[in-house]
Amino acid sequence: MFLISDNKDTYTGMRLAGVEGVVVHERQELKDALDAAIKDKEVGIVLLTEKFGREFPEVIDDVKLNRRLPLLIEIPDRHGTGRKENFITDYVSEAIGLKL
User: Fold this and answer.
1) Using CA atoms, how far apart are residues 63 and 87, in angstroms rounded to an integer?
2) pLDDT at residue 87 greater than cutoff 80
3) Which helix (H) or strand (E) holds 75?
4) Are the CB atoms for 51 and 77 separated by under 8 Å?
5) To the nearest whole percent, how much of the chain has pLDDT over 70?
6) CA angle 87, 5, 14 (to 5 degrees)
7) How far apart are CA 82 and CA 35, in angstroms?
8) Geometric angle at alpha carbon 89, from 88 and 91, rounded to 5°
């Protein structure tokens, strides 16, 4: 696993759990960090703080749609999740077409 975070708190917490990573803030820094993670054959999962999915969705979507590996996982940061309360239930309902 490899972490790309927008803040030092999340980075520090993941480092304590043994996950290497970087802290980036700009679009180009994110692209460079993703490129480095993609080239590293030891990295199978890239953890990204949710802020990147909101601010730079085209960068994240490009990797998700055009690459099998690494798997990109968006995680909440220290401020919590940006998703609404019933995110999972709504997602499943929409996917199968039934109200749960």
Assistant:
1) 23
2) no
3) strand 71-75
4) yes
5) 80
6) 90
7) 26
8) 65
